[in-house]
Amino acid sequence: MRKRRVTYRPSKTAAIFGGVMGCIFVGIGIFVVIPMFGAFGILWTLIAVGITGINLYQAFGKGYVGTEIHIEEENGENPSAAGTSPEERLRQLQSLYDQRLITTEEYEQKRQEILKEL
Question: How remote is the C-alpha of 88 from its chain's centroid?
Fold first, then answer.
C-alpha cells in the first residue's frame, strides 16, 4: 500500500468566526462567570482564551499548515477502482455515459486510460 499525505486547513472564514466567538466567550468569562463562580470562571476564561488563540492562529498564522491526514491507497490506484477488471470498468463507464452523467470527451478520455492498462 502506498501512503499519500494530505493536509487539511479550515477556511479563513471559519477560523475568524471561531476567533470572534472565542472573544465573546472570553468576555462572558471575565464579566459574568468569574464574578459568579470564582475558580470555575477562571478555568472557563482560560479555555476560551485557548480556543480564541487557536482559531486566530489558524486564520492569520503564516506558519500554520493544517492537520495532516494519511490516506492509504492500494497499489497506487484509485481505491474505488482497485480489484475491478478493465472490462467491468469499461461497462461502468459506458453506463455513466448512457445515463448522461459524463460528457463524450470525459468518456473517451477515461476509456483510453482504461484501454492503456490492458
Answer: 31
Q: What is the DSSP string of 57-94?
A: HHHH-TT---EEEEEEESTTS-TTTTT--HHHHHHHHH
| Adjacent-strand bridge partners of 69 | 6
CA–CA dist 45, 101 (Å, integer): 52
Q: Which residue(s) pair with 6 in the sheet? A: 69
Q: Are 114 and 93 in contact (CB under 8 A)?
A: yes
Residue where the block lists cell 470527451: 105
- Across 11-15, 38-42, 80-84, 88-92, which has the greatest mean pLDDT? 38-42
pTM of the predicted model, to two decimals?
Answer: 0.53
Is residue 33 within 8 Å of 41, Cβ to Cβ? yes
Name the packing angle between helices 39-60 and 12-28 (round to 10°): 160
Is residue 80 scored above 60 in pLDDT? Answer: no
SS3 8: strand
